[in-house]
Write a structure and sequence with these properties.
heterotrimer; A alpha/beta; B alpha/beta; C alpha/beta; A: TIM Barrel; 7-stranded parallel sheet; C: alpha/beta; Nucleotidyltransferase, domain 5; Alpha-Beta Plaits; 7-stranded mixed sheet
C-alpha cells in the first residue's frame, strides 16, 4: 500500500469476543489495573464524574488549580457520603490547561492530593483520568504535526502522567474538516474519507506518542473517541423530528467511527475507552478492552436516543460533562457522581445476583428500536459490525467502509422484519449513501487518490500533508 | 430463542418508545406498497412490470417490459391500457396524496410515452385516446415550462396532446385546429407582450369558421378578466387542472361558457381566482 | 463653484433618478428622483408592451417629458449643462434613445420575421440634447453606454464594472434584483449571465397587499422575543420601527414609533415575512398555519397563501437560476468567493433574509451591497467621457456566455423542483435528492454568519449639498369615448385610482396606471366602448 503504512501497529483481524451475548457490563476480557487499587472491567462497574471548570477560572493558573482541587474535593466528599466503593474522576482540559503544560502538572498534582487523601483515609478506590484538549488547528501551519499546539499536547500528556494521573485520554480530531464537510452536505464519501482514513492516520500519530509516554510512568493509556466526527453527525441529526442530517447517515458515521477509534487500542491503549465514544461497544466486541460509556446520566451535557442501551456492556458509567456550579442538591460534581453512582450500583447488584444478562437485555430493549443509531449499537449488532471490521482489519479504509455497509444491512434487516420503521428522509438517505459506498473502490490507494483530488479544492482546511499523504 | 429475543417478543415497542417522525409522516414504503397503488396495479405479468416501470419513472424498465410483452404476442392495446395506463393511474394517485411530486410525474410521464410509442409501432397507428388536445406557447414567447407541464398532465390523463412547441405563429395554431379538430386547446404565455396572441387566434378562427369547445389560456401574467374578454376561452389556473377540464368537455359536453361558470366544481377544488 | 454642469441619469423600472454634478470640482451637488415610472405598468415588460401598443414616439415623449421634469428640480441652471449620461436596461435605454424596441418584446424568429424587425446595434453612442429632446443646453452631449449583447444591457455592464469583478481572479456572483433579475457569475473575468424572470411579486406586486416602496409601506420585519416587529418607510423612505405584532392573529403586542396605518407591504417586506414565516414555522409550505391561513402584519395588511405561493415561485427562480448558472459554468455554488447585491432592492433587503429564502446562495460568505450601480456608472461617464470608448471595448471583448433560462433544460428541471417546493411543500432533503438524481450539485449548506459589507448608508451614497428632491410625475393622457354612458365602471374598477371622467373627458395618470397588464378599465366597460389605445391617438397634455 502506498499510503496506509501498517508497520507500527498490530491490526485486529479476529474478534476477541466470539459472540455478542458474551458481553455484559462490568466485565471485560482484559481488565485494567491502576494505582489506588482500582480495576476496570474486572467484575464491577465504576461510576465516573466529569466537571468542566467554571468560566473565568482559565484566566490564571492559581484559579485553575483551585477549581480543579474543588471539583475533586466535592466528588470525594459525596462519594464517601453515599457509600460508593469506587469512582473515577475525569478532568477534560480547557485549552489553557493543555496550552500551558505547567498548569496541567499543577492541576493534576492538586487532584491527586485530594484523591490520595480519600484513598488513604477511607480505602475508596479512585481513578484520575486526564484528558488534554486536542488544540491543534488543521488549517494553520504547520498543521496537525509539529506545531506549537501539537508539542504542547505532548508535553501536557507527559506532565499529567508524571504527576500522578491514572490514565490519559484524548478526543483527537484528525479528519474533522472532511467529515464536517461530508456531514453537512450528505456526502458519505467525504465522511468515510474523514473518519475512516484521515481519522485513523491521525490517531496512529497521536496514540503511538501517548502510549510511549505512559510506559515511562505508572499511568495507563486510556482511549480515544470519535467525538469530533461521529458525534457531530449524531448531534446534527438531533431529535426524531430534526431533518438537518438523517439518523441513518449518523448511524453510518458511527459504524465508520468504530473502525477509526479502534486504532487507539491497536497502538496500545488499554481502556477504559473514553466515555463519549458511542462506538465503544463495537470496539469492546473486537478487542476485549473495558469501555466507559454515557447516556441517560449525561443529559446535563447533551441529548441522545439511547440513554439506557449504552449501559448494556459498559465498564465505567459517566455523566459526560457539566459546568461546575451549584444545583439544589449540591454542587455538580456531587450531584452527577451520585447519579452515575446509583446507576452503577444497580448494575453491580445485577452482577452480584447473577441477573446481569437480564438487566443488560432490559437496558438494550428500551432503546433498540427507538432510532437506527441505537439499533446498531445494541450488543448483538455491535458485535456484527465488529466482525465486519476485522474482516478487513488490516486496511483502515476498507474496514470503515465495511462497517458502514454492515450498519446498512442491520438497519435494513430490522426494517424488513417490521421492527423499525424509517421515514422517507431516513430511507432515501440510507439508500443513496449505501449506493455511493458500495460503488467506492476496493483499493485504498485509489480511494485516497480520488479523495485528495476531489476535496483538496473543496475543503480548504484539508491539507494532505497533515496526514503524510504526499501527492 | 435466546433470552433477549424472548423478552423482545413480549414487549410492545410503542409502549416504550414512539418514533414520532414516522407517526407524523408515515413510514417510508416503496411506492408499490401503498394500498391505493396496490389496488390499481395489475396483478399479472408482464402488465405489472410495465406499470411498475412507469411508477418508478424508469424508462428502461418500462420499455423493456413493454418490448418483452409485445414480443410474446400481447396486443399493443392491452399493453397500453392494462400496463402503461395503470402505471400512470398509480402515479396520479400518489401525486394526489402528496407522496409524489412534479419531477416524479415528469419521469413517469416520459417512461409512459416511450412505452406508448413502442406499442404504437406494433399497432401501426396512433392508439385511441380520450381525445386530442392541441397545446402551444404564444408567438414570441420562449417560456414553455408551463406548456410542458400541461402536455404531461394531459397525456397522464389519457389524452393525446399535440405539442406545437414555443414561439408558435398564429397560422400554425389555426392549421393545427384544422388538422386535428381538437376537443380542447391550451395556449400559454409568460409575457404580457405575447399573450395578445390569444384573442387574435380566436378572431382568426372565427373568420375561418373554426371552433373548439374551449381554449384554456394561462401562464405568467395572464389574468382571468383578460381571458374572458374574448370568446371561446377559459382561464386556466393550474397545469394539473387541464385534464379535468378536458374530461368535462368529453364526458359532460361542457362549453367554454359553462366551464367559466363551473370551474371550481369541474376541477374539484376551491380556486381563489374563480371566487 | 463653477458654472459647468453635468447630469447623470438612471432610468429604472420603478422610477427615474438624476444627479447634477459640478464639473469644476467633480462633485454631486443635487439629486432628484421619482417614485414611479412615467409609462403605465409595474414592470419593464409592461412598459415595453405599452410602448409597442401606443407607438415608440409617444412612449419616448412621456419618458423624456418626465426626465425634463426631474432635472428641473436639480437646482442648477440647465443652460449650463454640458454633458449628460444615462444608464438602465436595454428597454429603458432604447425608449430614451428612441430606437427600435420591438426586438426586445419577442423571442424567437417568428414574431421578428413577421414584423420585419431588425435589431439595432445598441453600441455606445454620443448624441445631442436636441436629438433626444432634453431641455438643457443645445450644445450638451448625451452619452449612451453600450449593451454587451442583446440580453445584457448597460445596467448589467454597470453592475459588473462597479463591483470590480471583471478584473479579479476568483468566482463572483453579481445580481441586480428586480422583476427581471440580472445575474452574472464571473469566473476569472469570464461572465456567465442570465436574466431570471422572477416576476413582479419580488417588487411587492401580484401580492394582495403589495406595493412598490413608498412612504407608509412595510419594508422589513424583525423577529423579537414576543412577536414580529414591523418596519415602515417614513416620508424620506427611511425605515422606522413600527408595532410588534403577533403574526398569526395581528394582535398588537407593543406599539412602535410609527403606529399609523401602513398602506401596503413592499417586496423586501414580503421576503422578510416569507423568511420569518419559514423560520418560525408559521409557514409550512404551501400553507400558512394560522387560523385564517393568513399572516397578519397590521389590521388590514396581511399575506395570503396565494401571496406566499407567488413569492415562493419568484424566489425559486433565483435559486434555480443560481444552480443553472453554476452547472453551466461547472463550479459549485459554495466556491463563490463573494456575492454582490446591486440596485435599490438589493440594497435595502436584509441579506440574512435573502440568504434564508434563496435570493442569494445560502453559502454566500462575503456579501457586498453595492447600491445603485447604474447611476454610479452614469456619473463616471459624465466625469470622464472617454470612459464610453472603454466601455464599448469591454462590451466587445467580454468573454462569456448568456444562458437563456426559458430554453434551458437544466433550468426547467430545477424549476420543477421549485414549483414542488412552493406549491406542494416538497422538503429540501428531497429537493437535494432530486438534484443528485439529475446529476446536479446540491444546494450548499447555509453559512451561519456571513460578512455583510454595506459600504454606503443609502443606495445612492452622495446626494449633494442641495440634497434629495422627490418629484411627482403626474403625466396625463386624455381622450373621450363615443357612446360612453358615463356609468363610471371603469373608474371604479381602476385599482390605482389613475382614471377620472369629467365632462366627457377621460383622463389617465400614466405614472399611476398599471397599463397593459391590467386593463381593468377596458375589460369592465359594459358598453365595450372603452379602448385603452385611444389614449394614444389624442394629444398629450400636462396638468
Amino acid at each position: 500500500m502506498k499510503y496506509l503504512v501498517v508497520n507500527h501497529v498490530r491490526r485486529f483481524t479476529k474478534m476477541v469476543y466470539k459472540k455478542g451475548e458474551e458481553m455484559v457490563f462490568g466485565r471485560s476480557k482484559f481488565p485494567v489495573s491502576q494505582r489506588w487499587n482500582i480495576q476496570l472491567g474486572a467484575g464491577y462497574v465504576v461510576p465516573e464524574v466529569k466537571v468542566a471548570p467554571v468560566e473565568g477560572s482559565e484566566t490564571s493558573e492559581e484559579r485553575m488549580i483551585a477549581e480543579c482541587r474543588n471539583i475533586a474535593q466535592s466528588a470525594c466528599e459525596r462519594a464517601v457520603a453515599i457509600g460508593l466503593p469506587a469512582f473515577m474522576l475525569e478532568q477534560e482540559h480547557v485549552s489553557q490547561q493543555t496550552n500551558n503544560p505547567e498548569w496541567a502538572a499543577e492541576t493534576t498534582k492538586a487532584q491527586v492530593e485530594v484523591l490520595e487523601k480519600y484513598y488513604d483515609e477511607y480505602g475508596i478506590r479512585v481513578s484520575l483520568r486526564q484528558t488534554p484538549a486536542d488544540i491543534r488547528i488543521e488549517e494553520r501551519g504547520p498543521g496537525l504535526r509539529g506545531s506549537d499546539y501539537d508539542n504542547n499536547i505532548e508535553e501536557t500528556m507527559e506532565a499529567c502522567a508524571a504527576n500522578g494521573a491514572s490514565d490519559l485520554c484524548i478526543e483527537s480530531m484528525g479528519g474533522k474538516a472532511l467529515s464536517d464537510y461530508g456531514i453537512s452536505r450528505g456526502d458519505p464519501r467525504a465522511i468515510l474519507f474523514g473518519i475512516g482514513v484521515l481519522g485513523s492516520i491521525d490517531m496512529e500519530y497521536m496514540w503511538n506518542r501517548i502510549v510511549n509516554i505512559c510506559k515511562k510512568y505508572d499511568c495507563r493509556p486510556g482511549g480515544d473517541t470519535d467525538c469530533a466526527q461521529a458525534n457531530t453527525a449524531m448531534f446534527m441529526a438531533g431529535g426524531l423530528l430534526d431533518k438537518d442530517v438523517s439518523h441513518t447517515m449518523a448511524a453510518l458515521a458511527r459504524g465508520m467511527g468504530a473502525a477509526r477509534s479502534l486504532v487507539a487500542v491497536e497502538c496500545g491503549a488499554l481502556g477504559p475507552l473514553k466515555d463519549c465514544g458511542y462506538e465503544n461497544p463495537i470496539i469492546k466486541a473486537i478487542s476485549g478492552v473495558p469501555i466507559a460509556m454515557e447516556g441517560k446520566n449525561a443529559v446535563c451535557a447533551h441529548s441522545d436516543l439511547m440513554g439506557n442501551l449504552t449501559c448494556a456492556v459498559t465498564d465505567v458509567w459517566s455523566n459526560e460533562s457539566v459546568y461546575h456550579r451549584q444545583e439544589m442538591g449540591g454542587t455538580t460534581p456531587e450531584v452527577w457522581l451520585q447519579a452515575t453512582g446509583f446507576e452503577s450500583a444497580l448494575m453491580n447488584t445485577a452482577l452480584q445476583t447473577g441477573q446481569e444478562e437480564v438487566l443488560r437485555d432490559l437496558y438494550t430493549l428500551t432503546d433498540k428500536y427507538r432510532d437506527p443509531q441505537a439499533l446498531i449499537l445494541a450488543y448483538d449488532n455491535a458485535h456484527r459490525i465488529g466482525e465486519a471490521i476485522v474482516k478487513y482489519g488490516k486496511d483502515p479504509y476498507l474496514r470503515a467502509r465495511e462497517a458502514a455497509l454492515e450498519v446498512g444491512k442491520i438497519i435494513n434487516e430490522a426494517v424488513d422484519a417490521n421492527k423499525l420503521y424509517l421515514t422517507r428522509f431516513e430511507r432515501e438517505s440510507l439508500d443513496s449513501s449505501l449506493k455511493t459506498i458500495e460503488n467506492l473502490p476496493m483499493d485504498s490507494d485509489q480511494f485516497i487518490d480520488e479523495c485528495i483530488r476531489a476535496y483538496s479544492r473543496k475543503v480548504p482546511e484539508f491539507n494532505p500533508k497533515n496526514y503524510e499523504l504526499e501527492v | 430463542m435466546n433470552n433477549i429475543e424472548e423478552l423482545e417478543s413480549k414487549m410492545d415497542q410503542d409502549f416504550v418508545a414512539v418514533r414520532y417522525n414516522v407517526e407524523l409522516e408515515g413510514p417510508a414504503i416503496t411506492p408499490e406498497k401503498d394500498p391505493d397503488v396496490q389496488a390499481i396495479l395489475p396483478k399479472e405479468e408482464p402488465y405489472r412490470s410495465i406499470a411498475m416501470g412507469v411508477l418508478h419513472g424508469d424508462i428502461d424498465e418500462a420499455l423493456n417490459s413493454v418490448k418483452e410483452g409485445l414480443e410474446d404476442g400481447l396486443s399493443p392495446m392491452d399493453v397500453i391500457n392494462d400496463g402503461l395506463m395503470k402505471g400512470m393511474d398509480a402515479v396520479n394517485a400518489l401525486y394526489t396524496k402528496g407522496f409524489f411530486f412534479l419531477p416524479d410525474l415528469m419521469l413517469s410521464g416520459d417512461a409512459m410515452m416511450e412505452g406508448l410509442k413502442e406499442s404504437e409501432k406494433v399497432l401501426g397507428h396512433k392508439s385511441e385516446t380520450k381525445g386530442t388536445v392541441v397545446s402551444f406557447v404564444a408567438e414570441g414567447d420562449p417560456h414553455d415550462i408551463g406548456k410542458n407541464l400541461v402536455v404531461m398532465f394531459l397525456r397522464a390523463g389519457g389524452f393525446e396532446a399535440i405539442d406545437l412547441g414555443r414561439d408558435v405563429p398564429n397560422e400554425e395554431v389555426i392549421d393545427a385546429v384544422k388538422e386535428y379538430k381538437p376537443i380542447f386547446m391550451t395556449g400559454t404565455a409568460l409575457m404580457t407582450t405575447t399573450m395578445t396572441a390569444f384573442p387574435k387566434i380566436v378572431e382568426e378562427m372565427q373568420e375561418n369558421g373554426l371552433e373548439v369547445p374551449a381554449i384554456g389560456c394561462g401562464g405568467g401574467s395572464v389574468r382571468r378578466d383578460f381571458v374572458e374578454s374574448f370568446p371561446m376561452s377559459v382561464y386556466g389556473v393550474e397545469a394539473y387542472h387541464t385534464p379535468k377540464l378536458a374530461d368535462s368537455i368529453i364526458k359532460d359536453k361542457k362549453t367554454w361558457k359553462e366551464i367559466r361558470k363551473e370551474y371550481s366544481e369541474i376541477v374539484g377544488e376551491f380556486v381563489p381566482e374563480y371566487d | 463653484m463653477s458654472d459647468r454642469y453635468a447630469i447623470a441619469i438612471d432610468i429604472g423600472t420603478s422610477g427615474i433618478r438624476a444627479q447634477a454634478l459640478d464639473l469644476g470640482i467633480s462633485e454631486v451637488i443635487s439629486t432628484a428622483i421619482t417614485l414611479r415610472h412615467p409609462l403605465p405598468g409595474a414592470n419593464v415588460v409592461d412598459h415595453l408592451h405599452f410602448a409597442i401598443t401606443v407607438g415608440r414616439e409617444t412612449a419616448h415623449y412621456l419618458l423624456i417629458e418626465a426626465i425634463n421634469d426631474v432635472i428641473k428640480n436639480l437646482n442648477i441652471d440647465l443652460r449650463n449643462v454640458e454633458r449628460t449620461a444615462v444608464c438602465g436596461n436595454p428597454i429603458q435605454i432604447s425608449l430614451f434613445h428612441n430606437v427600435e424596441i420591438r426586438d426586445l418584446a419577442y423571442w424567437g424568429e417568428h414574431a421578428l420575421e413577421r414584423l420585419e424587425i431588425t435589431q439595432p446595434p445598441r453600441n455606445a453612442t454620443v448624441t445631442s440634447s436636441e436629438e433626444i429632446g432634453l431641455e438643457i443646453s443645445k450644445k450638451a452631449e448625451i452619452y449612451i453606454p453600450p449593451a454587451i449583447k442583446h440580453e445584457i444591457g448597460a445596467d448589467a455592464l454597470a453592475m459588473l464594472i462597479k463591483s470590480g469583478v471583471l478584473e479579479k481572479k476568483g468566482i463572483y456572483l453579481v445580481s441586480d434584483f428586480g422583476t427581471n433579475a440580472e445575474i452574472g457569475l464571473v469566473i476569472d473575468g469570464e461572465v456567465y449571465s442570465c436574466s431570471a424572470a422572477a416576476g413582479p411579486a419580488i417588487e411587492g406586486q401580484m401580492i394582495e397587499k403589495g406595493r412598490l416602496a413608498s412612504p407608509g409601506t412595510i419594508c422589513d420585519l424583525e423577529l423579537t422575543d414576543n412577536g414580529w416587529k414591523i418596519r415602515i418607510l417614513d416620508e424620506n423612505l427611511i425605515a422606522r420601527d413600527g408595532d410588534v405584532v403577533d403574526p398569526s392573529s395581528g394582535k398588537v403586542i407593543q406599539s412602535g414609533n410609527i403606529n399609523k396605518k401602513a398602506i401596503g407591504i413592499t417586496g423586501t417586506g414580503v421576503i422578510a415575512a416569507y423568511s420569518l414565516g419559514l423560520r418560525t414555522g408559521l409557514i409550512s409550505l404551501p400553507k400558512i398555519k394560522s387560523k385564517d391561513h393568513r399572516i397578519h402584519l397590521q389590521e388590514d395588511i396581511y399575506l395570503t397563501e396565494e401571496d406566499i405561493e407567488n413569492i415562493g415561485k419568484a424566489l425559486g427562480a433565483f435559486r434555480a437560476a443560481h444552480l443553472t448558472l453554476a452547472e453551466e459554468a461547472d463550479i459549485f455554488l459554495d466556491e463563490i468567493d463573494s456575492t454582490y447585491m446591486a440596485g435599490a432592492s438589493g440594497f435595502y433587503v436584509d441579506p440574512n433574509k435573502s440568504l434564508n429564502v434563496g435570493q442569494i446562495p445560502p453559502s454566500s460568505k462575503e456579501i457586498y451591497q453595492i447600491g445603485n450601480t447604474s447611476l454610479a456608472m452614469a456619473r463616471d461617464i459624465v466625469l470622464n467621457p472617454a470612459l464610453l470608448d472603454d466601455l464599448q471595448k469591454i462590451a466587445d471583448e467580454m468573454r462569456g456566455k448568456h444562458i437563456t433560462l426559458a430554453t434551458s433544460r437544466t433550468f426547467e428541471k430545477i424549476y420543477s423542483l421549485e414549483l414542488s417546493v412552493s406549491q406542494q411543500g416538497m422538503p429540501f432533503w428531497m429537493y437535494n435528492d432530486w438534484l443528485a438524481r439529475y446529476g446536479f450539485q446540491k444546494i450548499p449548506p447555509k453559512v451561519s454568519d456571513p460578512n455583510i459589507h454595506r459600504i454606503f448608508e443609502k443606495d445612492i451614497p452622495e446626494l449633494g449639498k442641495y440634497g434629495l428632491k422627490i418629484v411627482e410625475i403626474g403625466s396625463i393622457l386624455t381622450t373621450g369615448f363615443e357612446r360612453c354612458i358615463n356609468c363610471l365602471k371603469c373608474v371604479e374598477n381602476c385599482p390605482e385610482n389613475a382614471l377620472t371622467i369629467e365632462n366627457g373627458e377621460t383622463k389617465v395618470r400614466t405614472d399611476l396606471c398599471s397599463g397593459m397588464a391590467c386593463l381593468r378599465c377596458e375589460l369592465s366597460c359594459p358598453e365595450k366602448v372603452f379602448k385603452y389605445r385611444d389614449f394614444l391617438a389624442k394629444k398629450e397634455q400636462k396638468e
